[in-house]
Prior knowledge:
This protein is of the alpha+beta class. The protein has a domain at 5-244: 2-Layer Sandwich (Nucleotidyltransferase, domain 5). The chain is built from 16 helices and 23 strands. The strands form seven sheets. Strands 17-18-16-15-21-22-23 form a seven-stranded mixed β-sheet. A six-stranded mixed β-sheet has the order 3-2-1-5-14-13, sandwiched between helices. A hairpin with a 3-residue loop joins strand 1 and strand 2. Helix 11 packs across helix 12 and helix 12 packs across helix 13. SN-glycerol-3-phosphate (G3P) is lined by residues 12-13, 82-84, 103, 243-245, 265-267. It comes from Flavihumibacter petaseus NBRC 106054. Residues 261-448 form the Carbohydrate kinase FGGY C-terminal domain. It catalyses: glycerol + ATP = sn-glycerol 3-phosphate + ADP + H(+). Glycerol binds at residues 83-84, 135, 244-245. ADP binds at residues 13, 17, 266, 309, 410, 414.
Amino acid sequence: MPEKYILALDQGTTSSRAILFDRNGQISQLAQKEFPQYYPQSGWVEHDPEEIWATQFSVMAECLAKSGLTTNEIAALGITNQRETTIVWEKSSSRPIYRAIVWQDRRTSAYCDQLKAEGWSARIQEKTGLIIDAYFSATKLKWILDNVSGAREQAVKGELAFGTVDTWLSWKLTNGKVHVTDLSNASRTMLLNIHTGEWDEELLKLFDIPASMLPELIPSSKVYAVTESIVKTANIPMAGIAGDQQAALFGQQCINPGMVKNTYGTGCFMLMNTGEQPVMSRNNLLSTIAWKLNNRITYAMEGSIFIGGAVVQWLRDGLQMIRKSSEIETLAASVSTTENVFMVPAFAGLGAPHWNQHARGTCFGITRGTTKAHLARAALESIAFQVMDVLKAMEADAGLPISELRVDGGATTNNLLMQIQSNVLQVPVVRPTVYETTALGAAYLAGLGVGYWEDVHVIQQQWQADQHFYPSCAASEIAPLIRGWKRAVNASIAWANDES
Ligand SMILES: Nc1ncnc2c1ncn2[C@@H]1O[C@H](COP(=O)(O)OP(=O)(O)O)[C@@H](O)[C@H]1O
Ligand SMILES: O=P(O)(O)OC[C@H](O)CO
């Protein structure tokens, strides 16, 4: 019998990846492609669903071709994806009726303010675990139905399908045979009751969403389809789905309550496993479904930061200050401090724990002596400070100190950022050997779904630390920086509040 592999599709905000994992959870082959971002108006962010599919499909084909494997050597396929991003398509033609509205998009902020003013905050948090914000899918879906010509009529007739990116990819991989989403993705729509694990009728009514548009809810780890005959990918069991942050929690083996990871991708997302009960945050964090496995739902508490590695991408593409993301490390390391420059990258408002939809990016403390190196360092520090704010909120909710942080995601290749992070938090930061933890989590869920791995205890042995970053300075040296950061965030919020 030839050795089999698990294929994970990781559809992120900036790129699509396909990764083959072996039985030891090691990467055997990888292909990756960036795709375009569209910013049609200030605060709007869109993707083309066909480009999402085309890049995802091409990396999958490339990965298989490079490996030389045939489909019967693939034991299962797992999907993990940028969450909340909202796609609506025609069931009959599979044609999207609008571009994907991305999680970072702010176009529904005013409607969210209205919902808050009408007193919906507590009820929505109680049911969904979420804080009302344009971030989640429900208001994006409502916007499409209200603004795309003919959409509502078609939706009422049952002709349209809604899905997050996992739903879209599952639809495309099966030629429209399945219209599904797993509970971890569904919990990000603001339409799911996380206690019952069902779509919530009251919320569907509030957002005026016809139930016929909604995908079927499935567990995160179970065979739900096989791939259709598209090039070399026919008949692979599709057996795992999870939102990328929950998949990373699984891939980091945070499978016991109290375990925490932080992922540094486009945004930063810290999740704590809270076991089989949702914990309602008193400190502006989210309560969300981590996964449904073996018929049991595991919950997580989450701090979502909208701009993490994206600030580096902005310096690269927007300001053209660097040519490659990796160049930021040398540039930022060329100065030992920012000379009191603070950047608040609230490009898409502020997420946890501030939740200000109207805040925007800002930079304080610039003098005639400020160079691009200071700005580069301030950008990296801004990522670390935002993570600190979320970690403090999580510690307050948990009533326990977090004594070590497991990290992953594209920006964790930056050793300087990891060192700054450890200094700011004054705790060790641990990077695992497999950086592609998100994809690994999806592979694990798919592999467990087909019995490739017998149970979680088998995969638990596979997690290995690559590098520890320990604090290299005293807390007293960091304290003035933290004060400066807090002033900068407050000023950014005050600027937004002054306008509203
Ligand atoms: N060396 C680096 N230093 C800091 N940020 C980086 C570095 N390399 C990549 N990044 C950032 O990491 C992000 C990509 O990480 P990834 O995990 O692929 O994100 P996503 O899944 O959101 O697309 C980008 O925003 C990029 O700017
Ligand atoms: O694309 P990422 O990895 O930054 O993840 C995006 C999140 O899923 C948004 O909630």
